[in-house]
Amino acid sequence: MTFINISGYRFINLTNLEELKLQLESFCQNQALKGTILLGAEGINAFLSGSRSMIDAFYAFLPTVGFPDMAFKESESHVCPFKYMRVKIKKEIVTMGVFDLDLEKNHAPALSAQMFKQWLEEGKDMIVLDTRNDYEVQLGTFTNAIHLDIKNFRAFPKACEQIAHLKNKTIVTFCTGGIRCEKAAPYLVSQGFTDVYQLDGGILKYLEEFNNAHFEGECFVFDKRIAVDTQLAQTHTVQCHNCRHPVSEQDQHSEYYVEGKSCRNCYHHESFSPL
Q: CATH class for domain 110-217?
């Protein structure tokens, strides 16, 4: 069986969270879908897997509960990357610790993958800002992108102080699938940055259209696949059992990698004991 894996989100102001949770849980369980749906006052974020017919039924169901024209990215796998089906209510569908942006109304301009590639090839004077976590950046990123060396997205607002001197530069933010940069870009605008864009659909949408053009390495994904290459195929990267850090195929040959016990990352952590 071929599994269709989808990811999509929408920033939309929601109030009927408990009712939506029950409706989505019931539908997804009846369809035998697996994955996670996050609901919050700021919107919805969904990662699901199932057969083609299951996924198409989910697409048809969404407008009936208030989510018309919601865009999803798709990939295929021979195994389901999720074990369970969960619908959760959270304070934020992507945690940044900032609650006053009203993301349904306040958008930074979305930059298409095509235009972003054109800007890169023209050598446009711009800052390409990776808004992801440090361990994701280490696996792969766009050529000449900068990042803020953050452990999690909650650290992004404070870390932005590092680039306060760039407030008048053109900045293109990006992340895996678009949700973090769609929140990061309006935050930067709220802090006085004057020319900020978000890469529409993130890395995954870009790779879907242009493969390895201007992108080096792998892209970390938040499911059992761990990482995909520039063809969106699952790689041999695994996740360390101890620290949950991704371990590339090359690093699996390191003296510090012991399957189920340690990797280069956690072995050098001061709190780690190999015993």
A: alpha beta
160 is annotated as an active-site residue: no
The two three-digit tokens of residue 37, written as one number: 């749906």
Cβ–Cβ under 8 Å, residues 203 and 176 = yes
Query: How far apart (Å, rounded) are the C-alpha atoms in residues 177 and 22?
Result: 26
- Which residues are CB-neighbours of 88 under 8 A, at least 6 positions away? 21, 36, 37, 38, 39
Helix ranges, the chain (H): 17-30, 52-61, 113-122, 134-139, 156-159, 179-190, 202-210, 264-267
Residue 55 phi/psi, 5° resolution? Answer: -65, -40
Q: Which of 80, 160, 175, 263 is catalytic?
A: 175
As a whole number of angstroms, the distance between CA 107 and CA 102 comes to: 9
Q: What is the pLDDT of residues 74-92, one digit of tens each?
A: 888 889 989 999 999 999 9
For domain 3-89, the question of CATH label 3.30.70.330 is answered with no
The answer to whether the CB of 207 falls within 8 A of the CB of 215 is: yes
Q: Is the pTM of this model over 0.70?
A: yes
In contact, 8 and 71? CB cutoff 8 Å? yes
